[in-house]
C-alpha cells in the first residue's frame, strides 16, 4: 500500500530508542524526511546512521531536552530550516517514572506535567501555522494504554496522559477543517526500556524475578506476549498517511487486547 507521504517532513520526538525510534524508522521507510531528537547525542548519531543505511530519507539529528522551551524552539527551527515546513509531528517524551501516590511531591507532578503535556502543546503550537497554510498535517501523540485502563503504580502517567488525551481531542475538532488530523496511540506492555523499568519496580515490590513478572504480564494479555515497538510504529505510519485522512480525535490502543474497554 502506498501511504502517499514520500518526501513529507516529520519531527519524531524522543527517537533515540524504543517507540520513538521505531516510529522514525517506519516513517523513513515510507520516504519521509525526518528530524529525530533526544538528550543523548551518541544514541542519536547511531540511530541516524541506522536509518540512513536502510532508507534514502534525509535524516537530521538534534539534541533536545523536551523539558526546555528553548530546546523545543531550537528543534523546530532547525527541522523546518533543513527539511522545510513540517507535515508530521510525533509527540513523544517517554513515560513518567513508576511511583506510589504518597511518594510524590509537588515538584514531581509539575516536572511530569512539563514533560508529558507541555512538550506536546509547545511543539504542536509551532507546527500548526504552516500545516494550516498547506491544509494538510498530522499530529500523533504516543500515549499509553493507561488512558484506557489505569496501570497500578503509575500515578503520574495515569493522570497526566488523560490531560494530553483531552487536549488532543479538543485540538482535533479545532483543526479538522484545515485538513489536519490529531490522534493518539496507546501502547500496552511493549518491549522498551520503560517496560523493563516497570518490571524491575514490580520485581522489587513483590520479590519475584523480572522474568516471572514478564510471564505474569504476558499471561494477562489475550495474545500472550509483550508487544514490540514495531507493532505500534505500523499504526503510526498509517495514521500519518493520506489513507487516514478521515480519522481524527482518536485514541487507539495497541495492546494485544489487554484493555477491557470498547473505547
Quick take:
The protein is of the alpha/beta class and 263 residues long. 48% of the residues lie in helices and 14% in strands.
Overall tally of domains = 2
- Described by the principal axes of the CA atoms, the overall outline is globular
| Helix content percent band | 40-55%
Oligomer: single chain
CATH uppermost class of the largest domain:
Alpha Beta
Examine the coordinates and then state which fold CATH places here, giving the name of the CATH topology of the largest domain.
Rossmann fold
Reported CATH architecture of the largest domain: 3-Layer(aba) Sandwich
Largest sheet: 7 strands, parallel
Q: In what range is the share of β-strand residues? A: 5-15%
| Annotation, overall tally of beta strands | 7
CATH superfamily of the largest domain: NAD(P)-binding Rossmann-like Domain
SS summary, helix count: 8
> Ends: how far apart?
27 Å
The mean pLDDT is 94
Amino acid at each position: 500500500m502506498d501511504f502517499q507521504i514520500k518526501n513529507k517532513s516529520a519531527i519524531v520526538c524522543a527517537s533515540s530508542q524504543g517507540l520513538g525510534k521505531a516510529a522514525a524508522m517506519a516513517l523513513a521507510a515510507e520516504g519521509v524526511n525526518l528530524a529525530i531528537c533526544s538528550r543523548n547525542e551518541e544514541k542519536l548519531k547511531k540511530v541516524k546512521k541506522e536509518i540512513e543505511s536502510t532508507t534514502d530519507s534525509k535524516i537530521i539529528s538534534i539534541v533536545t531536552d523536551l523539558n526546555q522551551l528553548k530546546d523545543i524552539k531550537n528543534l523546530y527551527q532547525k527541522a523546518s530550516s533543513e527539511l522545510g515546513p513540517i507535515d508530521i509531528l510525533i509527540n513523544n517524551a517517554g513515560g513518567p517514572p513508576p511511583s506510589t501516590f504518597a511518594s510524590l511531591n509537588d515538584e514531581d507532578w509539575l516536572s511530569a506535567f512539563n514533560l508529558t503535556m507541555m512538550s506536546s502543546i509547545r511543539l504542536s503550537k509551532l507546527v500548526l501555522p504552516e500545516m494550516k497554510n498547506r491544509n494538510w498535517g498530522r499530529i500523533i501523540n504516543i500515549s499509553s494504554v493507561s488512558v484506557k485502563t489505569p496501570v497500578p503504580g503509575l500515578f503520574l502517567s495515569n493522570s497526566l496522559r488523560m490531560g494530553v488525551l483531552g487536549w488532543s481531542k479538543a485540538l482535533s475538532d479545532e483543526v479538522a477543517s484545515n485538513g489536519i488530523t490529531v490522534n493518539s496511540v496507546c501502547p500496552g506492555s511493549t518491549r522498551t526500556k520503560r517496560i523493563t523499568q516497570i518490571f524491575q519496580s514490580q520485581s522489587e515490590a513483590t520479590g519475584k524475578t523480572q522474568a516471572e513478572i514478564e510471564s505474569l504480564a504476558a499471561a494477562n494479555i489475550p495474545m500472550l506476549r509483550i508487544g514490540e515497538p514495531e507493532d505500534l510504529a505500523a499504526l503510526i505510519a498509517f495514521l500519518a498517511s493520506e489513507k487516514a485522512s478521515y480519522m481524527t480525535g482518536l485514541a487507539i490502543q495497541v495492546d494485544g487486547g489487554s484493555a477491557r474497554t470498547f473505547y
